[in-house]
Amino acid sequence: MRCPCGCGDKIELMILREAHPRWDIRVNEGGYPTLHPSVWRKTGCRSHFWVRDGRVLWCE
């Protein structure tokens, strides 16, 4: 996915069970994803956010 901050960086999140770290993804009835845990970029723009039902919720 592209970083939602607008910097244009590509973010790759591992969702395979054997990967570490990894993210769980759930898709609701409307087709919108939820990710767990949050996404926290340690480099680049350093964005920190949750994806809940297809919406980006920024951490402060």
Tags for this model:
60 residues; mainly beta; three-stranded antiparallel sheet; two-stranded antiparallel ribbon
What would you say this structure looks like, in words?
The chain is an all-beta fold and 60 residues long. The protein has one domain. It has no helices and 5 strands. It has a 3-stranded antiparallel β-sheet, with no helix packed on it. A hairpin with a 7-residue loop joins strand 3 and strand 4. The radius of gyration is 12 Å and the shape is globular. The model has no long low-confidence stretch (mean pLDDT 96).
Produce a short descriptive summary.
The chain is mainly beta. 0% of the residues lie in helices and 32% in strands.
Counted up, domains total 1
Helical segment tally? 0
The rounded Rg comes to 12 Å
Tell me the major beta sheet.
3 strands, antiparallel
Structural topology:
Blueprint: E1 24-27, E2 33-36, E3 39-40, E4 48-52, E5 55-58
